[in-house]
Structures are given as C-alpha cells and as structure tokens.
Specification:
Length: 151
C-alpha cells in the first residue's frame, strides 16, 4: 500500500476496490465479504467517489484494495500519516487482526512509535539506511529502542 494512498478520485469505492482484480485470475475477481467486515465504512460508502472520502477513509480503501490482491506480504508505508486518531485506532485494529490470523507477513514502515510497538513482532530501526537497532517483541527494551531512533 503506497504512502500516498493513490485512490482514484473519480471512481466509486467499489470501482477502486475492483482495480485490485488486475493481478488475479478471472475466477478470483470478486470482493471477499471479509473486506467489508474489516472496513464496514467502505460498504456504507461503496457508491461514493473515492475523492469524496476523508483521508482516513481513503487510507482504509487503499489497505482494502491491497488486501483484494490476497498478498502473501503486505507492505504498509506509514498508514497513520495524516489520519485522525480514531481512524488510526481502527486501522491498527485491522492490522492486529491480520497479524494474529498469520496468513500473511506484514511489513510496517511507521514513524508513530506507539502504533508500531502495539503491532510489531520484530523491530528494526534504520538510521540513514543502516540498521541501528533490532529486537523482537519478547526482547523489547522500550528505552533502547527509542534511543536508537534518529532525531
């Protein structure tokens, strides 16, 4: 999922979701009910244009569109950027569900520390492209992790 959302502004929510079909075989080109279970607001707004959604709703749409492709690895580039707190919580809840299901690996690039700590099993801090710290949830030392984060 790109950092900039890349929602098609003039297309409906349903049409935006259907763009995820491009990489799927014809017999898999449908929107699984699970998408609307994870993101009920998208079902409520399925006929609205993508450009008419709030930033948080567009972010949910972008994540849902990525999930349509049934990825083995989901790459999320700063999904909290520019999003209001209640939507950040909702997105975190979805990522947590996906993580706990264990059907895909999730790579989360995130600057919002508490969001990342809540969701991650492994932590890698990069400083100018070089790894400055690694740990797992089991070995997490919050202070060591924070001190490794570049300012």
């Amino acid at each position: 999922m790109p950092q900039g959302r890349e929602v098609f502004a003039l297309m409906s929510v349903m049409e935006n979701l259907e763009t995820g079909f491009a990489c799927l075989p014809p017999d898999q080109r449908h929107i699984p009910p699970r998408i609307f279970q994870l993101f009920p607001v998208l079902y409520e707004m399925k006929d609205r244009r993508g450009g008419d959604l709030s930033g948080g709703q567009q972010q949910q749409l972008a994540i849902a569109r990525a999930l349509i492709t049934r990825p083995k690895v989901l790459l999320l580039d700063e999904p909290t950027e520019g999003i209001q707190p209640n939507i950040i919580t909702q997105i975190g809840d979805v990522i947590e569900v996906l993580r706990d299901e264990g059907e895909m690996s999730i790579v989360l690039v995130e600057q919002y520390f508490d969001f990342a700590v809540r969701l991650a099993d492994q932590f890698v801090v990069l400083n100018r492209g070089a790894v400055s710290h690694t740990s797992t949830r089991a070995t997490l030392n919050r202070e060591a992790l924070l001190s490794a984060v570049p300012i």
